[in-house]
Amino acid sequence: MRLPTITDALLARRLLRFAPSPLSTYPALDAATGAKVHVKHENVQPTGAFKVRGGLNLLASLDPAERARGVLGYSTGNHAQSLAYAAAHHGVPCTIVMPEKPNPAKAQAVRDLGAELIEHGERFDEARAHAERLAADRGARLVSAANEPAIIAGVATAYLELFEAEPELDVVLVPVGSGTGAAAAALVAAALAPACEVIAVQSAAAPAAHDSWRAGELVERPNRTTAEGLATGSGFALTQRLLRDRLTDFLLVEDEQIGEAQRLYLRAAHTVAEGAGAAALAALLVHRDRFAGRSVAVVCSGGNASEAELNRMGRAAPIG
Fold first, then answer.
1. DSSP designation for 153
2. How far is the C-alpha of 30 from the C-alpha of 7, rounded, in Å?
3. CA-CA distance, 166 to 157, in Å (whole number)?
4. Sheet with 116-119, side-by-side order of all strands
5. Whether 133 contacts 104, CB under 8 Å
6. Which string of b and e fits 305-314 if b means at least 16 CB within 10 Å?
7. What is the C-alpha to C-alpha distance for residues 175 and 199, in angstroms, rounded to an integer?
8. Residue 49 contacts residue 288 (beta carbons within 8 Å)
9. Tens-digit pLDDT profile for residues 35-72
10. pLDDT above 70 for 319
11. How far apart are CA 130 and CA 43, in angstroms?
């Protein structure tokens, strides 16, 4: 696979012509973390998550024969919505494989966008294997959740916006499931803000990307996190290649700490973050001493919280 470049990201921005997503500050987050916090609100995208940037860029890059065959993807939800949204925009047949009993809101959103939804397996990696078999049987264009240069280039447009708005950031914290967001952040930071640290964050209950990066090779790990967007059981080759050379550090947080960050977003920033969307803020809270006094961007990557997540936020005791 070809590594995406900063030129690919610039071409994607020209193609997508997205209005920049909000980059906001909140005194209550500064007080809670001791840092100067900038929140990149990718949870306000049309599908509720950053992934839509990559889906649109990939569908735009397909040739007519690939579009006619249709696309087939696998996802816990946000990549699925991205692909379904982009396919509907371009008039391309789309099938999505999700693990059984998916987030009902995400599953319904895929159906509402006109895609065929197939539920298979208990975990992400079982859904992925079924999607690979199904794509081969149908002759559809299989769209990986991460091993797609066009997806990473599309996602990178968020970080072009970020560094243009705040070119002197000290740190960017990015949640990781498949790793497209962190890979895109590392790609853009290397070109535009080489002094800025790019730090990835994953759930300790699904540490495959973290452990792959630490080991320098792709590994599989148990996947038990309740944060759907972080729920992958193995590393991905393309994103790991980018992260290996350009990532500053990779942190793990507990699911309970992610839940605390979700509640803090709700209280202090009046914003809904799904588990993956709150992971970067969770790392900032957990490692307060490391980031205190620094200018830190946290990526709120998605807001597609399930009803169960919203209920947990409402039942939990206040922070602090």
1. H
2. 34
3. 14
4. 116-119, 94-98, 71-74, 141-143
5. no
6. bbeebeebbe
7. 9
8. no
9. 999 999 999 999 999 999 999 999 999 999 999 999 99
10. no
11. 29
Place of tokens 């605390």: 260
Element (H, E) at 249: strand 249-253
Burial letters 200-210, b for 16+ CB under 10 A, else e: bbbbbbbbbbb
Average confidence score pLDDT of the chain: 95
| 64: CB partners within 8 A, 6+ apart | none
Helix, strand, or coil here: 9? Answer: helix
| CA dist., res. 69 & res. 94, Å (int) | 9
**230: helix, coil or strand?**
helix
**What is the reported pTM?**
0.94
Q: Which H or E run contains 15? A: helix 6-16
Q: How buried is 28 (Cβ within 10 angstroms: 0-12 exposed, 13-18 middle, 19+ buried)? A: middle
Nearest-angstrom CA–CA distance, 200 and 75: 20
Paired tokens of 293:
């006094």
Contact 184, 159 (CB under 8 A): yes
Cβ 232 vs Cβ 223: under 8 Å: yes
- Beta 116-119 vs 197-203: how paired, if at all? unpaired
